[in-house]
Amino acid sequence: xxxxxxxxxxxxxxxxxxxxxxxxxxxxxxxxxxxxxxxxxxxxxxxxxxxxxxxxxxxxxxxxxxxxxxxxxxxxxxxxxxxxxxxxxxxxxxxxxxxxxxxxxxxxxxxxxxxxxxxxxxxxxxxxxxxxxxxxxxxxxxxxxxxxxxxxxxxxxxxxxxxxxxxxxxxxxxxxxxxxxxxxxxxxxxxxxxxxxxxxxxxxxxxxxxxxxxxxxxxxxxxxxxxxxxxxxxxxxxxxxxxxxxxxxxxxxxxxxxxxxxxxxxxxxxxxxxxxxxxxxxxxxxxxxxxxxxxxxxxxxxxxxxxxxxxxxxxxxxxxxxxxxxxxxxxxxxxxxxxxxxxxxxxxxxxxxxxxxxxxxxxxxxxxxxxxxxxxxxxxxxxxxxxxxxxxxxxxxxxxxxxxxxxxxxxxxxxxxxxxxxxxxxxxxxxxxxxxxxxxxxxxxxxxxxxxxxxxxxxxxxxxxxxxxxxxxxxxxxxxxxxxxxxx
Length: 488
Ligand code: FAD
What we know:
Layout lengths: L1 E7 L9 H9 E10 L16 H20 L5 E4 L2 H12 L3 E5 L4 H16 L3 E5 L21 H11 L49 H14 L6 H4 L13 H6 L4 H14 L4 H23 L20 H9 L5 H13 L4 H14 L4 H11 L5 H11 L14 H8 L4 H6 L8 H5 L36 H4 L7
Parallel strand pairs: 1-2, 1-4, 2-3, 4-5
Bound molecules: flavin-adenine dinucleotide.
């Protein structure tokens, strides 16, 4: 029996954790280690920090919760500030560890870090065990080589749906080996220690994300069983205001407080015990999108983060600091964009519908570099995940895994379809509260003066041949769709 290190990154749980289970079964002493890389909190070239306050707070709550879970099983979490490639060899030397186990990641920076660590581990006489478990679909079951991954989602989905069975989640080891003598666990850093401003709770917040495995299970239980919302997921999933319109599991999935297979198991159990319908299928479908972007990242390497994207399309973007900042602050003058951007900054979450709308606005109306938008999402989102974030942004920008050119989301149409009574924009932008719905989406047309920022740009012309508004929608909002001829 030997001493082993389990390296935690975006797998901050004890259940369904293959590296932990593997070393718990074979080691006399065990070191679960989490490294806080200060580089993750430094400013980016776009002029803001890489990790914002809400994301940092959720991350550290999740790390602290992991420590509690490990302690309950006789272990602990060793937390160090620094790069894993420096820290892990140091801990190996102090403890005499001979095994290192970790979950493999898909994005390029994480893989480069893994390579550096595997090389350093070999120099210390350690054996590295790398396991791919972050997807529903086991990588070894893929019916194609990663290099031959379909360039669009549908053929990928069809191939895996028809041929692959998803493994079930593994149980938690009831007891874990202790830390070796002489290793101090260390403390979880505070936001202030990392130079991150602590965010205040915004009174408009409708849903609170509680970091950690227990918080993730609580939300899953609530959404699926107590509120019974999985039954109608397909009909509600485009909602922006009501927290239960979607699962909101993404922050726990992104940090690995929940594994995708745990969520998949829960859907299957619900199908057996309550109902199997298009909605239960659709949540599995969305989880396959998550898988797909992981495999895309693995295949794309650094191109996922470059202007030309995984499809290597040479599109030109412009840079306008003032316009970009107005988008980030949610002060573009277009309420549907502003409400979503303010929700993101205030809470660290935005619905998928909102993400598509604000991305289209940045890319098609402001024509700003998609990587700036992706970087802002990276800083803000509690569910930030390099594969899903850069994969979706590249897709929206027309340089990713979509055969069509970038899709344009006309604000008027989005407002009519997804916020027809203006409840969403009125909630996030109280200045618009007393306006009729159409004016709340177009305050520059309001009959009474309203204190609202002026529009920062004209919208792109409505593409020819598109359908007109449904008759129940006030006609003046249609001006929005073709307002490029009307200067803001
Ligand atoms: P649900 O609708 O309940 O879906 C369940 C789960 O399916 C999600 O938690 C997520 O894991 C997965 N999923 C759903 N849609 C997608 C998708 N389009 N791509 C990948 N996985 C998906 N998702 C992230 O997890 N992290 C990101 O950094 C991220 N950045 C995005 C950036 C842009 C520009 C866009 C358009 C989408 C992004 N998404 C990202 C995908 C999606 O918006 C979120 O996963 C979803 O809104 C999370 O809310 P939910 O858990 O309630 O989703």
